[in-house]
Amino acid sequence: MVSTFGERLHGAMRERGALCVGIDPHASLLQQWGLPDDASGVERFSRTVVEALAGEVAVLKPQSAFFERHGSRGIAVLERVIAEARSAGALVLMDAKRGDIGSTVQAYADAYLNPSSPLCSDAVTASPYLGFESLRPLIDTALAHGNGVFVLARTSNPEGSEVQNAHGPDGRSVADTVLDHVRAANAGAAPMGSIGCVFGATLDAEGVDLRINGPLLAPGVGAQGASVGDLAEVFGPAIPLVLPSVSRSILGAGPDPADLQKAARSINDEVSKLSI
Ligand SMILES: O=C(O)c1cc(=O)[nH]c(=O)n1[C@@H]1O[C@H](COP(=O)(O)O)[C@@H](O)[C@H]1O
Q: Is there a catalytic annotation at residue 262?
């Protein structure tokens, strides 16, 4: 039987630590690494990150936009990054933040979560702001193929709160409702469900029920100002489910692979001390 994403992620977090490293080939990072701002630069950059880290971190998260900005050649690089990272043992979370009406969401599901697609990843990020049910085809396709989805609940950027903290007639915030839907999708799954939420490490989770029986992707550590220490304060008893996601503050240590490894190991070690 095919393993579930929740099972694979749970195992990877125990074996490799909970860190997720973002592959975000910003133009400024390409320049800093002495690479051209084109598809060949993105390929050298991403290959270096994969070779340095895919054998040791639980999850690599390529940000699709940084590949898309180089057109079809950038997407071809993304396809190779997915294949190489997975064959080196990392889980790949495609950061595409897709969302649309359900019939179109099925096409995104076919692109990112169906093994017949060259972009198929272990999981994809999705925006529920066309209504959580519009994401159903993504969730069903993920579960049918042993893959996962990370649904945005509270994003790390300060602008997010005007939408995500708005309250409905039942007095619940939009983000609380998203967390409720994800909790329902993961009900009964063990050791944890395959549907995660994104909850920024930069936020205050006071009064928020984070028990979703699934992973909590926590971007915002490093370049956006949160520290590993803040994670304990934000997530409290939910820490064992937290997957801190870090891009620039690790990528900025490159291009030497040993320096990338050093930067990732140092954060991973700090994170592992939180869960004790
Ligand atoms: O889904 C995400 O990964 C994400 C959600 C969120 O709320 N905030 C957020 O920063 N991200 C992504 O996480 C990464 C953060 O990068 P750094 O700030 O460089 O660590 C970027 O790829 C963002 O697109």
A: no
The closest of 20, 63, 15 to 42, measured between CA atoms, is 63
For residue 112, give the amino acid letter. Answer: Y
CA torsion, ordered 233, 234, 235, 239, to nearest 10 deg: -50
109 in Cβ contact with 76 (< 8 Å): no
Determine the atom of ligand 1 nearest the C-alpha atom of 155.
7
User: Which residue in 61, 97, 262, 273 is the catalytic one?
Assistant: 97
Number of domains in the chain: 1
Give residue 167's domain range: 5-274
Does the CB atom of residue 164 touch ligand 1 within 6 A?
A: no
Give the model confidence (pLDDT) of 10-20 as tens digits.
999 999 999 99
Residue owning the nearest CA to atom 24 of ligand 1: 63
Average pLDDT score over the chain: 97
Name, in order, each residue with C-beta under 8 angstroms of 141's C-beta and a sequence gap of 6 or more: 106, 109, 110, 113, 114, 147
- We report the CATH number of the domain holding residue 129 as 3.20.20.70
Residue 245 Cβ contacting ligand 1 at under 6 Å = yes
Interface pTM (ipTM) of the complex? Answer: 0.99
| Residue 35: per-residue pLDDT | 98
State what percent of residues in the chain have pLDDT above 70. Answer: 99
Q: State if residue 223 touches ligand 1 by the CB under 6 angstroms criterion.
A: yes
CA dihedral 109, 114, 120, 121 (to 10 degrees): 80
pLDDT digits (tens, 9 = 90+) for 221-234: 999 999 999 999 99
How far apart are the C-alpha atoms of 26 and 239, rounded to whole Å? 30
